[in-house]
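Researcher: For the record, we're logging two predictions in this thread. I'll number them. Prediction 1 follows.
Model: Prediction 1, sequence and structure:
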Amino acid sequence: MIEKNWSEARIGDYVLALPIWKSKPALERMVGGLCNMNFKVTDKGGAYVARIGFDIPVHGIYQSSVGATMQAASALGVTPEIVHAEPSLLIGRFAPGGALGPDDIADPRTLNKVVALIKRLHEGSARLHGAVSYFWPFQVVRRYCEIGREKRSRLIDRLPELERVANLLERDVAPFTPVFTHNDLLPQNFVFDGKGGVLVVDWDYGGFGHPDFDLAAVAVNADASAEYEARIVDLYYGDRTPANWRRFSIFKVIVTLREYLWGMVQEATSELSPELVAASMSHHYADQKAGYEGYTDMNEARFNKQWELFRREFGG
């Protein structure tokens, strides 16, 4: 079993020595993960992704839950097939089509596939087995604010205002039935499967949650236009109503607030090397500062925009 204190070289050797390979495997480090380590492994049977992750309590990430959600998602056919699982290591088939970008989300044909995939995920709660996480973004925001105060974050003076926003919005969320949710739907967490379809990867935050958090995340993390935001709601619900549009708008704000404060927490607590983080940021967000500060600042701007739009339309 992989240990947290192992070097990258030792982890790579461990993966290569697994008895699952059909020939001598080749290993390639992948760039992009901001919370875990990934290798592409190739043998004569095909290409795979080996994902190495450890518990990160400040983010509510526990590998037992990650494994359970990935296995359930694999059974549902919404993530690449899992071929090997053990504590801290999950290996799935490699999706050859590459990750989506914001422009892909804006393509109507791809957006249709993305929303259909999300609906299939949300309808698949019965596939979850064992203990899995419950993701409630309003509580996540409050916890992140606590950490920000403990760590004397550069955002400390703004935290009371951000908590007030989260609490205000939370009171406006009606009772609902929790469903199987991903809770981290960045564009790059969708991949083309090479067969004309779309899959979703990176299940650190998967579990039970509110369906509109996933819908809103697709929109705001891709900086989608108002037209495409409306299309997401229409595709998912069939018809846009004042009630579901307001709820979607609430979750657009809380998605951006969670991402904003996630960056703040990572600035203060991440154990990943600065070089790896900079490379990952440059890979996904080339126009931002190459570090967690860049992620924080990018999502501060997104939050400010969504909160202003919400207040303009609904008050607050």
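Researcher: Logged. Prediction 2.
Model: Prediction 2, sequence and structure:
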Amino acid sequence: MVRKQTRPRGIGDALERMHAVTDMHTQPGHRETGFDQRTLARVAGEITELPAVATQDWVDQAATALTGIDPWCRVGMAIATLEPNGQVHVIEAVGAGVSEKEREQLTDPKADMLGLRVRLERMTDLGITLPDAALRRGLAAVCSDLGPWRDGPLSRVWNPAGVEKLLIGIVPIGKGEPNRSLLVFVALGHAPNGSTRANARTLGALLPLLAQRVRKALPAEGPISWMTDREQDVLERLILGRSVREIAEELGRSPHTVHDHVKSLHRKLDASSRGELVARALGHGTREKSELDPVVIERVRAAAQIEPAPGTGAAARRPG
């Protein structure tokens, strides 16, 4: 499967900037919240390594990346069309992940994650009213701040998992479909006092990075052209520099069949050449800058309430 590819050029520099951002002095009283700057940097690194193409397990990989927010958590995700009243219409894909410590407590982690995916697919209503700007600008919040989620439909999704606290995040991903969003849940099973809001702020700080990666991998409108398993096999070998004939031999298929897969990949990734196809797969195609946008970095800093270092903030970039 297409995962953990060589980091695109520019992402390494961007991550160094992320580490610089998260290592800076925090505002007075900030440390008392339990906000972990290293966690922010580590999970940000995981997000930047998500596939830049719509692999079938993309949502699972994204959910797993966010499990780094807390040692005891489960993460559920859905690509869905939402309404401000909390109704969920079209669910295009779901994914689930569990942190290592939480996994150790589960009798059958695979069955647990499968059950979570099924419950997410059946979700039709959040049972809470979303803030006005949530579907336009995104949201990261403690679910109980938005309404009594345990008394509504979300209880059917999360109560079987023994959840103590639930965080919700919304990442707008649609243009022609303005309410199309990536819906994120972080369920905390062993949340110590004071950590829940710190985790919510960490989630909020990471959402701009996640939004950028979502928009790189998934189309802004229209159906998602998910790659098939065989297309993923072919794409991985193209990234390694294999020829069509070599790929055919390795996969036990005819060169004609492999060529058809390559043509399908060109169409799905909107690539006009083999080099552009590989570049898009690695996340540094021409449609979007490969380096994390400075505005995104600034939003992460602001969401985390971290002061900029001298020479790195917006004031430093303002012309004299």
